[in-house]
């Protein structure tokens, strides 16, 4: 079933969250179901959709009844002859009347899928949902040849402000300049650069430098994209290190070159992609990782009123302000609980400050306020903290990730100074203005739920590659020393692609 773009985004439903009561009975027919997991063509590692509990009076409920949810979901092949492996965990209760449903296919379903959404024994909304086959699993190599059709299926954004800003410095991309400069400037022995060429939807690479092990993350997402949509031909360099690299100004001679990085800064010109962390969490959800952008939404701790009224932090010693945070915590334990879980940069401080025990990430949300302090660059936990049900106190920072531009201080999070001098004051403010703090936490959560949906990450990656390819002034080539990056050999799951592939002459 095809849903209009407005129903694709949970943020659009924020305005519909009318006041519901814990006791209000759920109406299965009036409840809402929407999301990309109800479309056969929306191929994602984990397919997902959303439920909104609605009362018999038509009110969107904003709290779940105590105990286990009565919502259940069954996903099975349309054909009894087609035996497929499908992992369907129970719906994740997001504690606001909405639920997140996930399922992961381990085989391609040729006839199609039947998705039954039930509340007790009653069908919810338009259930059962029929997805006519083929419905491909993640490792099926069957790219959509029409990128526009693929983007329409995923309801990709027509405008991404960060991408537009990043490419302002690069109206044209001179490949020859990059070939001459990048190996010399950034590809020495201590470098962390990978040179990629995408040609005819095949991915080739060569590593420049000693610290390129993280290429497994860039390989992983590029291959995943190439299995889903035909990528433009292009040649580019990805920086696998923490810090952005290109600090030349636009008016300098020579000018900046478009190195692609996972983190940006106010004084650099790198083109930014979603971090390796949230990329990997998207690809390996319900398989290789446990704390991912979807699962965290159903593990946000106790209700707001039952959370501990303190600011909380746990992390490594990767920045001096983190040490100051721990000292502040020792002096103000009634306001702040902060600890260092591992010492690497400031080992001499361990005896003085002590070492905190490791905690499960979901346990962070037992606290009302989360302190987000930079690591070596931007703290990559920030998106996960926003998705929780706590107020995020974010350190002012020159570093940013791909989605920061959409966030507004005092609307989606509370800003704190770089030196943390106003942190305790902001914690006191939050305690004295509980309703306002709760509102900011909710606004941040809703925005993160929208921005960080897995399908939007795929859209973002594709748009960066598309904009880059448009600006190349010469044709990309497979250079000496490059090797083909192979797709995983999936012998267990058979995949027969129904799409007509271009002939070699067309390529």
UniProtKB/TrEMBL annotation:
Keywords, sorted A to Z: Endoplasmic reticulum, Glycoprotein, Glycosyltransferase, Signal, Transferase
InterPro entries: CAP10 (IPR006598), Filamin/ABP280_repeat-like (IPR017868), Filamin/ABP280_rpt (IPR001298), Ig-like_fold (IPR013783), Ig_E-set (IPR014756), O-Glucosyltr/Glycosyltrsf_90 (IPR051091)
Residue span, Glycosyl transferase CAP10 domain: 230-475
Molecular function as annotated in GO: glucosyltransferase activity
Signal peptide: 1-19
Residue windows of the Filamin repeats: 23-133
Pathway entry: Protein modification; protein glycosylation
Entry annotated with the keyword Endoplasmic reticulum: yes
GO CC annotations, alphabetized: endomembrane system
Pfam families in the cross-refs: Filamin (PF00630), Glyco_transf_90 (PF05686)
Annotated catalysed reactions: L-seryl-[EGF-like domain protein] + UDP-alpha-D-glucose = 3-O-(beta-D-glucosyl)-L-seryl-[EGF-like domain protein] + UDP + H(+); L-seryl-[EGF-like domain protein] + UDP-alpha-D-xylose = 3-O-(beta-D-xylosyl)-L-seryl-[EGF-like domain protein] + UDP + H(+)
Task performed by this protein: Protein glucosyltransferase that catalyzes the transfer of glucose from UDP-glucose to a serine residue within the consensus sequence peptide C-X-N-T-X-G-S-F-X-C. Can also catalyze the transfer of xylose from UDP-xylose but less efficiently. Specifically targets extracellular EGF repeats of proteins such as NOTCH1, NOTCH3, FBN1, FBN2 and LTBP1. May regulate the transport of NOTCH1 and NOTCH3 to the plasma membrane and thereby the Notch signaling pathway.
Similarity comment: Belongs to the KDELC family.
UniProt-recorded name of the protein: KDEL motif-containing protein 2 isoform X1
Organism: Heterocephalus glaber (Naked mole rat)
């Amino acid at each position: 079933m095809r849903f209009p773009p407005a129903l694709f985004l949970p943020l659009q439903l924020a305005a519909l969250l009318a006041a519901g009561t814990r006791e209000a009975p759920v109406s299965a027919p009036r409840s809402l179901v929407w999301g990309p997991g109800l479309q056969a063509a929306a191929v994602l590692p984990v397919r997902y959709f959303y439920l909104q509990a609605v009362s018999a009076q038509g009110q969107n409920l904003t709290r779940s009844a105590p105990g286990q949810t009565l919502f259940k979901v069954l996903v099975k092949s349309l054909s009894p002859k087609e035996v497929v492996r499908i992992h369907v965990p129970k719906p994740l209760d997001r504690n606001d009347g909405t639920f997140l449903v996930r399922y992961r296919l381990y085989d391609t379903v040729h006839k199609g899928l039947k998705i039954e959404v039930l509340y007790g024994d009653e069908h919810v909304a338009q259930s059962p949902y029929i997805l006519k086959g083929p419905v491909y699993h993640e490792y099926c190599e069957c790219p959509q040849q029409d990128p526009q059709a693929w983007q329409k299926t995923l309801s990709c954004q027509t405008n991404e402000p960060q991408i537009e800003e990043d490419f302002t410095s690069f109206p044209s991309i001179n490949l020859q300049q990059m070939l001459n400069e990048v190996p010399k400037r950034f590809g020495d022995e201590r470098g962390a650069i990978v040179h990629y060429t995408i040609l005819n939807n095949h991915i080739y690479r060569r590593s420049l430098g000693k610290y390129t092990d993280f290429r497994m993350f860039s390989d992983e997402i590029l291959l995943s994209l190439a299995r889903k949509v035909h990528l433009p031909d292009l040649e580019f360099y990805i920086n696998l290190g923490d810090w952005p690299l290109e600090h030349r100004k636009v008016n300098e001679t020579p000018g900046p070159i478009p190195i692609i990085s996972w983190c940006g800064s106010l004084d650099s010109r790198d083109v930014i992609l979603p971090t390796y962390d949230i990329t990997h969490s998207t690809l390996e959800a319900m398989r290789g990782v446990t704390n991912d952008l979807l699962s965290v939404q159903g593990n946000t701790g106790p209700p707001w009123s039952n959370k501990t009224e303190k600011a909380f932090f746990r992390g490594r010693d990767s920045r001096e302000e983190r040490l100051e945070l721990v000292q502040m915590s020792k002096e103000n334990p009634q306001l702040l609980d902060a600890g260092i879980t591992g010492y690497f940069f400031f080992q001499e401080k361990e005896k003085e400050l002590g070492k905190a025990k490791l905690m499960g990430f979901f346990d962070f949300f037992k606290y009302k306020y989360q302190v987000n302090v930079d690591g070596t660059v931007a703290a990559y936990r920030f998106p996960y903290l926003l998705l929780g049900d706590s107020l995020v106190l974010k350190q002012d920072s020159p570093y940013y990730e791909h989605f920061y531009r959409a966030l507004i201080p005092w609307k989606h999070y509370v800003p704190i100074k770089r030196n943390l001098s106003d942190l305790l004051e902001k914690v006191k403010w939050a305690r004295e203005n509980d309703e306002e703090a709760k509102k900011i936490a909710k606004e941040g959560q809703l925005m993160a739920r929208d921005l960080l949906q897995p399908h939007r990450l795929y859209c973002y990656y594709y748009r960066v590659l598309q904009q880059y390819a448009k600006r190349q002034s010469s044709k990309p080539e497979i250079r000496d020393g490059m090797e083909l990056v192979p797709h995983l050999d999936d012998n267990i799951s058979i995949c027969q692609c129904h799409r007509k592939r271009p002939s070699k002459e067309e390529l």
